[in-house]
Amino acid sequence: MDLVSGMTSRLLAEHWNATDVDILASGKDAGGRKLPPNASMALRRLGWAVTAPASVKVNDRIVRMAQEQAGRALRSTKWRVDLTAGVLATWPADPIRRTAQEWDAVREAVPGGHHLPSSVIKSRTRQITAFARKHGRMPTDVFQLEAAPRVARMLLLSACDGQQATIERNETDTGRALLRLQLPTRPDPRSYRDWTWVACPVALPPTIPGRAVLHLPTLSVHQGTVRANLAYTHAVPMPRRTGHMVALGVDWGLNTLLSAGAARLHDDRTITVLGPGGMFRTAGVLAKQHRLRRLSEHLHAKAVHYRRLIGDSTSHPLTARARALTDEIQHVSARRSHLNNALAQAAARWTVDQAIAAGASVIYVEDLRSLEARGMGRTMNTRLSQQVRGQITDWMRHLAAEVGVAVVTVPARNTSRHCPQCLVPLRHRKAPDRPTASGWKWALCPSCGYQGDRDTGAWKRIAARGLTHQAKTVAYRTGGTMAIRSVVDGLEAEAVITPTAGTGRDRSKTGPTRQQTPRPTPRRRRTPSPARPQGPAGKRPEGHAHTDRTRLPRAAHRHQDVTTTSRPTTGHRPRGAALGAGFHLHAHASPPRWEEPPPDMTTGRLAEDRSADQRRLGTTLVGCVNKPKRIPPRPATG
Description:
By secondary structure, the chain is α+β, with helices and mostly antiparallel strands. Helices cover 34% and strands 15% of the residues.
């Protein structure tokens, strides 16, 4: 790996310029012939050779691995070259805020700029602005903005043939394979006798089918262990761009990472949903992600402070601490990367399983590449910028390709704003079952009466938009990804969900809950009530308890009714449901506090006597605003 990375670094430094990158990206040599698709063969056709260090003997396959790695890096630079050239050619008067005409100009100058997220152009603009602030001039191309990329220590065995490496599956155990390759026996091999064949048994994961064809892997070292990035090929169904009848719509969120559901396109062009859908919530994982982010920010700030104190000194007492802090930063960064990768795989696996269960042939995901985390507060901006939507989409495409399901991105405009049944702008408010939760999760349509979770309405809109616009699906030639680039007004008018009538019986309340008896108990006593007693003794008079209040208590806020469910006020958080106005606003059942174990724990008679006393005195536990007064038990008799 050290030999290959050294040769790759020298080859990149020699051809890190605009002329050589343009020649390689053109796909033709000096004679007009088409270059081979393999990067190593293309570099050999152009005559870009590299040699091993002096007194080191390597075979031609080692040189070919170095050329393949360098050629891939140079080919990927062409896109950044064109992007930087387009931004420099149309440099705006104010780099912080472009006008509409300047946005049109820069998109015309950049290849494929009409469908390029604005965040990519803005990030390149900020990079150029930082260079101009540091050097006092504008750069000429991307090669002044960026140095030659750092070369990873790895072996691209796919660039070799059987004389350097071979791999074959075990005949009896399909879960194991044997990799054989030539390795040097010393860091600086002097002759071919210093190279020998090494057999490396490889344990295959269960995700690799038994009939898959194995290809030569890419070897790398991670924490002292050799890792093999193994590629394999097996037959899968071909995903379609059009002709879909059942689709799965996926909506992104913050607290709820994914919301998904299936919709069906009928022969009469109507669209109905298949069930209520589901949600993928990862509150615990996201909380850990934010904790690691805060820890990483703290460590970075501390490292910057250490560097400021150390300065140019080589024997500063904080040098050892700064080195240990750098190792800790790398460890925390690795933990964040592993957590994000695990979250992306789990979310993608859940989404593909939902599509398989619903029988969907396509997954429509809203395209949020142009989403910028700004203007929504420090906390919200940070949460938006730390999401792993790109990794989830990549894993989703990978897992869906194995079962022949297409993954198509659709524009995200007005997916959460308009009603999925009539396309009228929705009204958002707090959810009725979660009045204390922050945010406006509930959506109501003032036109058709639709109401539901706003994320549920969003995936319905996404699925309906994808089904009606599937004829506009395009497949990119480079990566094979599919996307619907724009929304057509005529097709958007058909992207409505037709409500289906419920099959179950109507359970809405139209009368009394309890059944009527032949002779119901009268609500009022038929005998006249006694006169009001002057002392504390006597029976409670008929009707409401006597209070000095002449009107009902008002609600907690002016916009609430007596029966309105409200949020708990500051300083008091009642247990259970917080009911609306008057007495029920702050009242909740208080548990009795026993001074000593009551004698009725063993006998049931005293409990019945005490319940009779409570009914006689007209006191109930729920009706007590303050702590309920304990009624002492009567002494036991008999």
